[in-house]
Design goal:
This protein has 187 residues and is an alpha/beta fold. It is 37% helix and 14% strand. A 6-stranded parallel β-sheet has the order 3-2-1-4-5-6, with helices on both faces. The two termini are 15 Å apart.
């Protein structure tokens, strides 16, 4: 197969300092069960409101009434999505089913951190403790701890940042073009 790629010209790096309010991005359609967005907001409820700002980006769905959302980003045009990632510090991605999960790769490409549930669409490139932190689906306390650890452990954050950028760089479309051409020109 040919791996999915990313355009690093669009999803470019922006330095984060993890000072002040930490912006956590939750992404996905809350109406789709497999996106598991409710779990993200259960995690957000456990976080200190004075320390964390919750951004929710969804193309199709509106936030549910009980969601704690500091900023709702609805129907953001694709060419503006990278700016959203660049403005946030941590992506909290709780999908339980994905064919390929682009948001973690996009967040890593911009220099941000990822806390995610492992699924078939992200396990091919996410490695917990190397380029992200993963937690077991449904373990809200483990997810909260992962977020708090990212905020307090600068050494870990740097390691995840370095390996996250390396992961994204290996998926740059220009590096995959030859593989794509070979795939379609083989007899």
């Amino acid at each position: 197969y040919v791996p999915n790629g990313i355009d690093l010209g669009v999803f470019s790096y922006k330095e984060r300092n993890f000072e002040g309010k930490i912006k956590i991005l939750i992404e996905g359609n809350s109406d789709d069960h497999y996106k598991n967005v409710d779990e993200s907001f259960k995690i957000a409820e456990k976080l200190d409101k004075d320390k964390y700002e919750i951004w929710y980006m969804s193309y199709n769905a509106e936030p549910k009434e009980w969601y704690r959302v500091d900023r709702f980003l609805h129907k953001i045009p694709y060419e503006k999505v990278a700016e959203v990632y660049q403005e946030c510090d941590i992506l909290l991605k709780t999908s339980i089913l994905e064919s390929f999960s682009y948001p973690p790769l996009e967040m890593m490409a911009t220099g941000g951190m990822v806390v995610a549930v492992p699924n078939g669409g992200n396990e091919e490139y996410l490695v917990s403790g190397e380029n992200c932190l993963m937690y077991k689906q449904g373990d809200i306390e483990e997810a909260v701890k992962a977020i708090e650890t990212l905020c307090s452990d600068e050494v870990l954050r740097h390691q995840l940042y370095v390996h996250g950028l390396e992961t994204a760089e290996k998926r740059e479309w220009s590096l995959l073009e030859e593989k794509i051409e070979e795939f379609y020109t083989e007899d």
